[in-house]
Write a structure and sequence with these properties.
Blueprint lengths: L6 H12 L5 E11 L13 E6 L5 E6 L7 H5 L17 E7 L3 E9 L8 E9 L5 E10 L2 E7 L4 E3 L5 E9 L17 E8 L2 E7 L1 E2 L5 E6 L4 E10 L6 E10 L1
Parallel strand pairs: 1-7, 9-16
Antiparallel strand pairs: 1-4, 2-3, 2-5, 5-6, 8-10, 10-14, 11-12, 11-15, 13-14, 15-16
Keywords: Signal
Length: 253
Amino acid sequence: MKLRFSIPVLFCAFLFCFGSLVAQETTVMVRALAKDAKFIGSSIGGAKIILRNAETREILDQGLTSGSTGNTKLILQTPKKRYDKLTDETTAGFEAKLNIKEPTFVDVEAHAPVNKKQAKVISSTQLWVIPGKDITGEGVVLEIPGFVVDILSPQTHERIKASNGINLKANIIMMCGCPVTEDGVWDANQYEVKAIITSEGSEIKEVSLNPTNKPSTFTANTNLEKGYYTITIYAFDPVTGNTGVDKTNIIIN
């Protein structure tokens, strides 16, 4: 006995077998890892994660990483073998949910740290996401290089008498918020911290800042003549290449 199938029945069977027109929710875990440091999470406001369709630029999901910065010993002080994990269930990340009908080439971006505008950088990668094939566990890990540098003194547009001298003070932390201290995990003595002082585009002087007893705090004193000045303070790690910058303007009268 011969079986007979109509064209509509065959077409429906084809769709059922391949499921290519049915959207499936697919999970992609995304994490932001500060270079030479830990994961960027709730303590510093998180990293903004954006997943886009690489072809159409449609945003498929977005949100902030949340959770802890992770285990210092595990991340920085433990030799790693293939498939060893850096994270646990509390480590910061963003669990994206993508509704896709077919294998989709996806752009993944991390903007971090999201609340520190002068320090924020964008790290990105691309990958194929297959419907129903979750990417969990460590997930996609994007490296975020740099330091967060905040000038604490002098204040923006502060008027200072030339006779008083200038106190330069900056707070410098890793991109995950981890503190910088002398002889610590992130050794303040390893970093070059300097102020470049300019006036109307011309460099006036360069001043080195030194670490203090207060974690992440660097200071120096200098003198300036009357005028308008831009102060740029930078941090540089010659070992890892991490850098960070902040700027302010003052008036000496």
